[in-house]
Every structure is written in structure tokens, then in C-alpha cells.
């Protein structure tokens, strides 16, 4: 196959579900295949379990037959990590695959999921980035969390390793004693912090929660909004592929579309200040991630701005979700394929 194709062979790495079927973003994989073929390249999707010493068992999408075809493939020229489950990156097959790729000098990018607290610790050591970080602590001690809540009055509780707004709560100190906990779907009140802690400490520890100061976010038409920034590596730096706006609606906890958020074009709210913030943080975040964890060719940033005009980075994602903005998603496909071709020629 490699010999018959003048362009590169790209391996798209995903994971197996518990029932043995293949997980992942099928529509993205198909669009990448279409674009690569137009550039004289080709791709296949595989899991770590499909690796053997001499070849990889994977799946190629046939444009002619409009279906996935299982086959044996040689080791690719580059691997793009789209594993959707954090636990899959911690198992033995994944670690064995990474070792094999390194042995064969095969470029591999987006090496891991990003832990929210590790990102905070990483960026707070950068003088430029410090001012863009909401104060954050690990939930490790009852006294420390209560002191943090008294200081900020309202804080967000987030699992260190989660995505799409899952498991996020807003904790409020209503008066000297009453505590209110707000989730995406419901709200609970506790007569005291002690009462809250007794009910929640087990979950907070099991899911490795952090606490982050709540920002008094800027609003548009009465509802707060966030920036979703997509970036890709380009020419030894990072370029902004697209920016979207996500706005809270029925509930104020998250702005994610699946939980009722609203999509707005960036142009509705674009300003010189917004542009300058985004252009400042993208290269810093990309370079910091790559220095710490290995090469990141792609990432997204969730960010916001307060009513006083101060900007904040909330988190970064190594496996960006599909953007609902068609033009951003199209640029994403083009940027990824350009990066594939560049790295198979120059390496990392």
C-alpha cells in the first residue's frame, strides 16, 4: 500500500469499547480520509490492540464503497492520537504502542489527555500566563476548601480529568453558614459546610476534584459567554484555526452545547482586546504543553473574560470536540492534513 501511494500513510489511533467495537469520531476520520486522498495520502484507523510486530490490523474508509474495510497495514509514517478514553492511555497496550513508535522514529502527536490541575501548575510558572489563571486548589482537605470558599464566596468544583462539562458544580456560601451546591440539572442546600462536606467528601476524593474561583463573567444579552479557541502547530509555532463563542442559557454552570448552551459567531463579540488575548495565549499554551508532555499538534482552549475586562484560561483540551461552526471544522481538517504532510517530511 505504501509503495502504491506517493503520499504518506497516516495512522489514526483510537480505542476499543468494552464490547470490542471501535470507538471514536467516525465523521472526523472520514473527512480526514477524503482530504488526505485529495493530497495523495491515505489514512487508516486502529487501536493499540491491533498492533503486531510486523503490521497493524486496522480499518480504512473506502470512498468508492462508502464503508469501513478491515485490513492489515504497514506501520504508518505518522500517528495522530484520537483515543477518546483516559483509561485507555493508561493501559499496557497503549504504552507498548508508544514504545514501538519511538523505536521506529514514527512521529506521534497529542501524547495524552490534559489533567486540569497539571495544566494550572504548568501555566502558573509562566510569568505571562499567571495573570490569566483563576485561583485553583486541589480538594484535599476540609479546612483548605472552606477557607478557599470563604475567600471567593463562589467556586467551581471540577474533576481533574473530565471533559464536556461533566461532573462540574458551583459551590456558594450563601451566608455565614448556609451552603448551596448547583449542578447542571439540580441544586441542593446544606445548613452548614460541615453538612456539605460529610455528604460530598467521598465523591470529591474519588474523582480527584479541584476547586476554582468563580469568575464574574462578561455577558451578552443577559447571559455569560466563553471563548472556544482551536489551535494547530504551524511553522515551528502555533496558529489560531478558529474561535467560537459558547453562551450559557437555561443553566449558568456550563456553556457547553450538550447542556443547553448557545452557539454564537465570534464576529458578534470580536474586539481588538479579545484578539490580542487569544493571539497571546495560544503560542504560550502550545509550547508549554509540548515542552512538558510531548509534541501537541492540536489543542483547544476554554477561556473567558470578566465584567471588569480581565481574561482567564479555564482549561485546555488535547482531543478537541468537533466545532459546530462548519467553517472552523473545515479549517481544522485542512490544518491537520497540512500538519500530517509536514511532519512526515520533517519529523518532530
From TrEMBL:
GO terms for molecular function: ATP binding; metal ion binding. Gene3D superfamilies: ATP-grasp fold, A domain. It comes from the Bacteria. Pfam families: ATPgrasp_YheCD. Keywords: ATP-binding, Nucleotide-binding. Residues 120-345 form the ATP-grasp domain. The keyword Zinc does not apply. InterPro entries: ATP-grasp, ATP_grasp_subdomain_1, YheC/D. This is Glutathione synthetase ATP-binding domain-like protein. It comes from Neobacillus vireti LMG 21834.
